[in-house]
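Run log, item B.
One chain of 112 residues. Sequence copied directly from the ordering sheet:
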Amino acid sequence: MDNYKTEMELLSNSIAAYAHIREHPESFGLYFVLGVCFGLVLSLCLLVIRISCRPRTERVLPKKKAILKDCSREDEEEEEDSDGNDDADVAVPMTEIPTANHSPSDGTLTVN
């Protein structure tokens, strides 16, 4: 008998909630939008925390470095072969990207 009573209370409460939503759709819409916005802000905060707490380790494979060195050697050989034609050579500015991580490994910032 106790099980039947709890089922009826649940059904009665559900009907009362539905009736309240039907009478006040503005408040339901407001609470729904607030819940969605709160969920999005919480997800964004957790994502930022996850990204900022990721360990900063260098993940460069040694095979890629060897391939890059071979390519640079081939480029140097091609440049040596084309030294006879100086009019066709155009100086192209290049920017070097450092591969080493300059920040300390414990995650603290250095102050100058």
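Observations after the first pass:
- The chain has a mean pLDDT of 76.
- Helices lie at 2-23, 25-52, 62-81.
Flagged for discussion on Thursday.
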